[in-house]
Amino acid sequence: MSRPVKVYVIDNGGQWTHRIWRVLRELGYSSKIIANTTPVHEIDADALILSGGAPRIAWESPKLGNCIDYLQLFRGPILGICVGLQLMAVYCGGKAGPSKVPEYGLARITIIEEDDLFKGLPKEFLVWESHNDEVKPANGFTILAVSENCKVQAVKHLGKPYYGVQFHPEVNNTEHGEEILRNFVNIVDLNT
Amino acid sequence: MFDAEGFIEQIVQELKNKIKGKAVIGVSGGVDSATTAILVNKAIGGNLRCVLVDTGYMRKNEIENNEKTLKKLGLNVLVVDAKERFYEKLRGIVDPEQKRKIIGELFIRVFEEVARMENARFFVQGTIAPDWIESGGGLRDRIKSHHNVGGLPEKMEFEIVEPLRDLYKDEVRIVGKKLGLPSEVYDREPFPGPGLAVRIIGEASPDNVRIVREACAIVEEEIEKAVVDNAMNRPWQYFAVLLPCKTVGVHGDVRAYGSIIAVRAVESLDGMSAAYSKIPHTVLERISVRITNTLKDDVSRVVFDITNKPPGTIEYE
């Protein structure tokens, strides 16, 4: 019998941090929410999800605690959501800042490349958004999905097991949200 | 899936260990506080006193109906009439956060008085996850101060117990159902702790309460009737809001100048995100006609809110 996969949620102060934890729990994974100031050596998870949050990427990245450490030192897949994605993009050499047209609530995304994250999902579906900032050039990443007003809705890193989404798969109104999170956790290989 | 049975067993045990002697719980008749009360009742039985505060901001006939329902569940209920105290403290207050904080503090003062009378050191409330998430703290921005979290005063005479803190509304409903609550309680639409006070934009005066209370009753009645007639599904939440501006109308060839009522109805699972309900126009029209006729001296216009959450929140303040 294999043990349940451990996926921890790094809390960047989002309205929906607790929802990520709830969906992971419902999917049968072992999960807990931990502060973004938790030292990386104390984290015994198989995968991490960097939550969204109120901090603005251009001016408030210190509020994102040790997230950079996790990107540098954590061994395992990481999914960045919203500001979590933005930080990941900046860390990898891209840029992020205020959106020309921010998106709140309903948006439609188009999948460009299915990859692991969108395996088995339709080419277009409705998602829930809540962002003032966005990733502009996502250097080092393949873009997996776009929306009308935001050209970086989902990405995968070219070399590392890093994924990011600008929309919120953990929100109940987002279509196929649970499947996206399940697809992400399925990347974890407990045998390595 | 959420394991309600396991949750109940674990929480009742925890409550038995934690609460020594008597406890007071704030109940409204809603699913969160009723479910919490039944859990605590299971743990400490006769040592629990349930307090239903009439803030003056409850809906039509709500205090009487809820008192009956709660007593039928075998709970030891005390109704405290605090209408005048709430109206007095909220006189002239228009800022939504200030309103919520005044209400939060006054609730606690009323509960403290009962706790003193009962000699209780523990105060239980039906706080659920969105209450503390939206109240903010630490990194999390404050969206609104929920009366039972962000609206609490700094000093309180008792220890607070919140057994449902990590649950969302849909999970609470499952627990409530498991505990044997009737469907009119476990399926009841959410109603904010500060009540109609946050459905009045501007001063929550007794006269404004009268207007919004009647409008809320009409919205509820018409939507529930349409649901019974299979014209629509029941939304997650549906209500009226009184807006603080006036517009011109015409009544029997005479100029009218009255307020605007906004009708809000949303679909949600847990209140953390929501889409506005696509209510049939015939139902909206009935609501509009009834509100403008019934409240002809106060309301000259009715609008329907088509904002999702985000960017809007479900309630207006």
Kindly summarize this structure in a few lines:
Chain A contains 4 helices and 9 strands.
Secondary-structure map with pairings?
The complex is a heterodimer of chains A (192) and B (317).
Chain A: E1 6-11, H1 17-26, E2 30-35, E3 47-50, H2 67-73, E4 78-81, H3 83-91, E5 96-111, E6 124-135, E7 141-147, E8 154-157, E9 162-165, H4 177-185
Parallel strand pairs in A: 1-2, 1-3, 3-4, 4-9
Antiparallel strand pairs in A: 5-6, 5-7, 7-8, 8-9
Chain B: H1 4-18, E1 23-27, H2 31-44, E2 48-54, H3 62-72, E3 77-81, H4 83-89, H5 96-118, E4 122-124, H6 129-135, E5 159-161, H7 169-178, H8 183-186, H9 206-228, E6 237-251, E7 254-267, E8 275-276, H10 281-294, E9 299-304
Helix pairs in contact in B: 1-2, 1-7, 2-7, 9-10
**CATH fold label of chain A:** Rossmann fold
- Structurally, the number of domains of chain A stands at 1
CATH architecture of the largest domain in chain B: 3-Layer(aba) Sandwich
Shape of chain B: globular
* Count of DSSP-assigned helices of chain A: 4
Number of strands of chain B: 9
Q: Uncertain spans of chain B, ≥5 residues at pLDDT below 50?
A: none
Strand percentage of chain B lies at 15-25%
**From the structure provided, what is the oligomeric state, counting identical versus distinct chains?**
heterodimer
CATH class of the largest domain in chain B, please?
Alpha Beta
Tell me the span between the first and last alpha carbons of chain B.
33 Å
Radius of gyration of chain A: 15 Å
Number of domains of chain B: 2
Kindly report the CATH topology of the largest domain in chain B. Rossmann fold
CATH architecture of chain A: 3-Layer(aba) Sandwich
Please tally the helical runs of chain B, counting DSSP H or I stretches of 4 or more residues: 10
DSSP helix fraction of chain B: 40-55%
CATH class of chain A: Alpha Beta
- Distance between the first and last residues' Cα of chain A: 16 Å
Roughly how many Å is the radius of gyration of chain B? 20 Å
